[in-house]
Fold:
Amino acid sequence: MRRVIVLATLAALALPAGASAKEVGALTVCGSDGCKRITARAALQGFMDGGYETLAPRSSGPFFTVKVAMRHEGEDAGGWTVEYLRAANLIRATGDYSKHVWTRPAGVTAQALRRAARGLQPYPAEKLGPVREPSPVAVEDPPARASRPASGGGSSRLGLAGGGAGAALVLVAGALMAHRRRQRPG
Structure:
């Protein structure tokens, strides 16, 4: 048994490594007067691993854009742009259904973003737009309707459900009685 395990391990090590996954190739922090690129591996990996999701700030503030460039097997694999509020240490991304998702970058990534934004002129808060999602609009309940018997001698759904349940009980009772009769010695 031990020999089989050793051979399986050696065979697995001899196989070529699987295809690499997509990874962040670079982060480019931009302000109104220019951009700075982040290529430090630890910061890129930290961005990919993410910080943690949090609540939106109470109010808007000056911000930078961060262009995320993805790579796959050494080739450009697209990317996206998020907003970075340096003072609040928050990143805003657009999630499903155009909802904003706020995250707080952690550790090396937070330091690299702060360092890259240093010396750049942020975009004004007014360009960021609202930071909190609007509350859902209250919808009034439809007016209550008085129940009336169906016209034309029909029956209500409740009556049909009750009739169906009654028929099922009759069938079950009949099946039980038939089963007992078969079990009686004759």
User: Anything to note?
Assistant: Residues 99 and 134 are 10 Å apart (CA to CA).
